[in-house]
Amino acid sequence: MANFPKDFLWGVACAAYQCEGGWDADGKGRNIWDDFCHEVNGHHVKNDDSGDIACDTYHRIDEDIALMKAHGIRAYRFSLSWARIIPDGDGPVNEDGLEYYSRVVDKLIESGIEPMVTLFHWDLPSALHYKGGWLDRDIVEAFARYARIVAARFAGRVTKFMTINEPQCIAMLGYGEGLLAPGYKLPDEDVARIYHMIALSHSAAQREIKAIIPDAQVGIVPCGELYYPEADTPENREAAYRASFDLSVARWGFHFNVCVDELFFHGYDDTAPEAVKRFMATVPETDWAQMEKPDFLGLNIYNGPAVDAGGSIVKRRRGAPLTACKWPITPEVLRHGPINMYRRYNVPVYISENGISCNDVVFLDGQVHDPKRIDFLHRYLLELSKAIAEGVPVLGYLQWSFLDNFEWTSGYDERFGIVYVDYDTLRRIPKDSARWYKEVIETNGANL
Ligand code: BGC
Which of 7, 8, 141, 345 minimizes the number of CB atoms within 10 Å of its CB? Predict the structure, then answer.
């Protein structure tokens, strides 16, 4: 049996580009994911899929919220499409776009579901991108203005905001390794510059939101590699902590502390690579006074490696469990990840994403049976409850994702939903896991 705090917020999460569709509806501008998917001979995405239609949540939001309500969901973390609200990112506001989200917020509240708004989940307006995007300091003011416009419209209705989803995927995977939009392969110094612009943008947005909504809780959502101890000894725990935040590795940019350390500590420790140090030396002193510590951190945690007491990664045993997209299944990371993040930053956390892709199919009986997802979520939640028992203030858990959706460069091949989507008919079929999760919520985790 697992114990969760009385007010623990149980919910689900999704992002605009992954589920909305309506890519050119009602005045929406283009964003870099529209461009990336449609680039002639780009073939960046499996089967040349795109988010043009996705789950068509843009037109089916009432049905989706009704389904959430039927499954006892208490919070919905969703992102806004910046280009739907401000088509070119820093110009005139598209009232229809803003009104759409305003209706979503009303509908959620009416249904007893708390809206948790993410301002940015990777879909940068193309016009801003061509002006320099995250490499350009002007983005800070553009993002702050966007936050101001959203906060003004949502005041009195929304208090939980997440500014930027996964700076690590934006900077490292999008601009450094070229895997995600815009598909650039820039040197480390530029990647460090993007992290810095994101830290400044988060801070400016946080200030704007709080000026308009004084009781708002504002967070940022990092991701990357968090390590867990192979054995539960003090030495091994210490090694996992150190490894989690050590930037002296090739993929330095894929660590939870990148960007976040700028907000909390105004820079990086000595483990940072030379290129990062060179960039940091160019940062004007006045920038540090601009940094805002988030009220909470949203942690997107899916898996992580085990380390031994010496800090070396432990090789997984042959045949160790994997998800459909071949990610290792490592429930312990949902215990030690939050413990280590809280130890480092000392602010409450939400698990803002956690879930599994499975090869889900509709069975002969018309239902979608997904025992592997249930087992995955069960194991991870048990580990999370141990972090809570050790005193980590975990405020909520947002399962990724409510619906199957557009899984970025994997297109529609990976299904993370607790609700199945038939992409031909757009019909939704709640999976067994949706009913199971309802019980978890109803019992506040006591059934685990
Ligand atoms: C992202 C989601 C994504 C999920 C599963 C996270 O990195 O925020 O957009 O779908 O992982 O890959």
Answer: 7
Q: pTM for the whole thing? A: 0.98
Instruction: Please name the residue that has the structure tokens 């988030």.
Output: 294
Apex CA 158: angle with CA 293 and CA 124, to 5°? 65
Q: What's the gap in Å between 421 CA and the centre of ligand 1?
A: 17
39 has catalytic annotation: no
Nearest CA to ligand 1 atom 9: 15
pLDDT in tens, 374-401: 999 999 999 999 999 999 999 999 999 9
Report d(CA 46, CA 345) in Å as an integer.
Answer: 38
One-letter amino acid at 98 equals: L
What's the pLDDT tens digit per position in 276-293? 999 999 999 999 999 999
Mutate to test the pocket of ligand 1, among 351, 373, 400, 407 (most ligand atoms within 8 A of CB): 400
Task: Determine whether 353 is an active site residue.
Answer: yes
Residue ID of nearest Cα to ligand 1 atom 3: 407
pLDDT tens profile 117-173: 999 999 999 999 999 999 999 999 999 999 999 999 999 999 999 999 999 999 999
Q: Does domain 9-442 have CATH number 3.30.379.10?
A: no
